[in-house]
Design goal:
about 80 residues
Length: about 80
């Protein structure tokens, strides 16, 4: 239950709004196949899951930095 109430970000709010909007549209226009899509978006928003639930979409920050050996950090006490 705590996971439902915490960590709301923009993507989660967009999924919630899309789910509610599709649900209202499905019921108002009697297009019930859209109701399944609305339930899908609402479940993603409430459970905080997405298509990248395994974390495979995030890029790793531990990858080698391209210019680490060329660009040196600035040290003001070490003047040339």
């Amino acid at each position: 239950m705590n996971n439902v109430l915490r960590q709301w970000n923009a993507a989660r709010i967009i999924r919630l709004v899309a789910g509610i909007g599709l649900g209202v549209y499905a019921i108002a226009s009697k297009e019930y196949p859209f109701l399944f899509l609305a339930i899908f978006f609402l479940a993603q928003a409430i459970l905080n899951i997405s298509c990248c639930a395994s974390g495979a979409c995030a890029s790793g920050s531990s990858e080698n930095q391209v210019y680490k050996d060329i660009i040196k950090p600035y040290d003001p006490e070490k003047e040339s």
